[in-house]
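We were asked to recover a plausible sequence for a given structure. The inputs and outputs are reproduced exactly as logged, with field labels preserved.

PROBLEM: sequence recovery
POSITIONS: 196
GIVEN STRUCTURE:
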């Protein structure tokens, strides 16, 4: 009986572990807080597991010819997979110059420079009007800050796929779940024109 209750407790706590860990790390570890600091920086760099990336792109109904924007693109794994496995064009938006440069070099080494590119800049200011799908992995508060840009630029039918954190005030058209390692991940999918 004790094993079962412990297993249930562990399962019920996984939904708050990642947000709590992000908050704790940014609040208590000086180097981490500096990387996460600044008015334009919406989240620390935490790579999304490949299984979650694939599920995000599937849930976003990415298809050949789509333009996928990944906000806070980091190492570019979302836009690279979008091009390689889904036939899409990818644009990664990354604030950190070194990470942006290294990712652009990786894209070139993979022979994807004609379909995938990085933009060094703020997710809060980038023109998203070409996007069919926008992916992101930010906190709920950061998603709230992004809402005006998403609503301003995205055309009806465009999808917004958020890893782990919802967009307040928007109604998801789908909530998907995927397990990667020992973690359960939640993916929120929104469609412009069907947000409320």
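RECOVERED SEQUENCE:
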């Amino acid at each position: 009986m004790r094993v079962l209750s412990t297993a249930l407790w562990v399962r019920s706590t996984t939904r708050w572990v990642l947000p709590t860990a992000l908050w704790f790390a940014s609040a208590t570890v000086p180097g981490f807080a500096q990387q996460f600091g600044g008015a334009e920086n919406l989240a620390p760099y935490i790579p999304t597991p490949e299984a979650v990336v694939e599920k995000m792109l599937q849930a976003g109904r990415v298809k050949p010819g789509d333009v996928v924007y990944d906000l806070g693109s980091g190492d570019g794994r979302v836009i690279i997979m979008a091009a390689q496995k889904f036939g899409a064009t990818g644009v990664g938006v990354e604030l950190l110059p070194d990470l942006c440069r290294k990712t652009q070099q990786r894209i070139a080494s993979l022979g994807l420079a004609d379909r995938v590119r990085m933009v060094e800049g703020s997710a809060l200011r980038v023109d998203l009007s070409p996007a069919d799908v926008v992916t992101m992995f930010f906190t709920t508060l950061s998603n709230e800050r992004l809402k005006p840009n998403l609503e301003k630029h995205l055309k009806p039918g465009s999808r917004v796929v958020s890893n782990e954190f919802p967009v307040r005030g928007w109604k998801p058209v789908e909530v998907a779940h995927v397990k990667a390692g020992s973690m359960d991940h939640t993916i929120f999918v929104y469609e412009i024109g069907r947000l409320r």
